[in-house]
Amino acid sequence: MKHQARIAAVLLALVAGLVLTACGGGDEETTTTEAASTAEATTKEARSGYGKKKVPAPPAIVVRDGEPVGGVEELEYSAGEQIDFTVRSDVADEIHVHGYDLSKDVEAGGSASFSFPAEIEGIFEVELEQRGAQIAELRVNP
Amino acid sequence: MSWLPFAHALAARQDLPIPAWLFAWGASIVLIVSFFALSVGWREPRFEGDRWRPLGAGLSRALLGLPAQILCGAIGVFLLGLAVYAGLRGTEAPDRNFALTFLFVTCWLGLPLFSVLLGDVFRPFNPWRAIGRVAGGAFTALAGQRPTHLRYPERLGRWPAAIGLVAVVWLEVVYGVSGGVSVGLAPHSAAVAALVYSAYTLTMMGLFGTETWCRNGEVFSVYFGMFSQLGSFAARGGRLGWRRPLAAATHWATVPGSAAVVIASIATTSFDGASEGAFLSALEWTFEWLTDGGFGLTAALRLTDTAFIGLCIAGVALVYLIGVWGMSTVEGAPPLRKLWSGFAHTLIPIAFAYLVAHYFSLFVFQEQAQFTYLLSDPLGTGTTDLFGTASSGIDFQLLSANVIWYVQVAALVVGHVVALTLAHDRATAYWGDYRQAARSQYWMLAVMVAFTCFGLYLLSVSNA
To answer: Against a cut of 0.90, is the pTM above it?
Structure first.
């Protein structure tokens, strides 16, 4: 029985450790969500104010030589929101949003804008279809 | 570091990592269940029996009779042929070609599931077995005697299948990469690999006999057969029958190399899950180190992935070895070697849970493609529309992120419980003294908790 008690203690410590780590992770999560929701709130505020000029531009992904400038852009939304972004590219290609399966051609030096509701949850690639190069990662949380 | 093409070629969508609160709940439930298992253990083995009850004779005749055997074999050969043809002649876009989804999703991921539910369903459809049997029959008819075979070295056991299993996954997730572009395995390569594997398998069947090779070396027979041991249904002597679930698994690992098969399964699934999340930065570091050392992009990528698959196998084997070694220190323990193979079957549920946790959503989504546009337009060239479904797509709204998370965590927890059940049962068979049996199981408990929590951890790491 003594042996069992010792094992029990070890397991209990393990549980406590796990829960603590997980909760630590949870705090981080909430802060990012909070940050995201404040950002979202300001965006909404800005959009609802018709007369004001301070409408923040939707995120723009700049492609130079077939590569996204500054690495793969991370786009994060919650389900139900409107997804807006623009791709400016110095090479001609087809921009493909996987999962949502939306495609738009872009000319060299041109741009393409996307606007669609975040209906599908998950992580999706946005890529230059012909080059097969990922330029953004779209993340839709529930 | 986005240009590292680690992503799956087929997956247009990746799972979101499970949230921290679900990770905490999952891990807590696992530990609480484990406590419970320590306190309520039964004292006599309940799954070691070999009891098997036949089902109706008519059903057996219909499903196992000669007409059914011929039909199933023909279907198997036809589907393999179709996959190879589509791979060789069809589009190189992996997601539009019948070959990749059929071989790596419908069969590779689907058959473990159907094997658990329905028994060893791959056996009648196994195209190589069908060809081998026809060839054997033809030989007997022409030569007037049965073909003679080499004696299969029993010590080799299932080792060829274990190595083959690693090779299949290596082909899928490592070989497929190519410098800077996330294409994954090309359909053409998959078809060539299928042809090479067919030639190899048929040669081995010719050397050692069809059924002997299926039992030991044929990767898919051994792999799917392993999962079928968990379920209730099995054929025996030409009759369909059923048995207590899990009972068959207790007799599975008596052949050498069985532990290697199940360890390879857990390790390769872990690698695939971790390569996009938990291991990503380590992989990138190794990759950069190798490219700095003068390797080309593709070579560096393949070397990196190969090394990490090797590490995964070593890691999983080591955890199991520690558990086995621990058990061997308990009074009255059988020798280490017997423990090593004697508890290998307890890892099958963990391997199955890992598969469900990692591939459940991919399977559900990709099967929609399989049964719509890939069936109507197998070559993906847009020239055929056999069933009028060529323009259908995948409905990614079918599963919400929450459903996927719950299925993933539930699979790991259930797999954990089943594994503990099998381990406890085996211990009661090996240790006459109940108290020693329970003591030995602290070690296996630690092994199972390690695997399950590692599985949860892999799911919780962001693959961004």
So the answer is: no
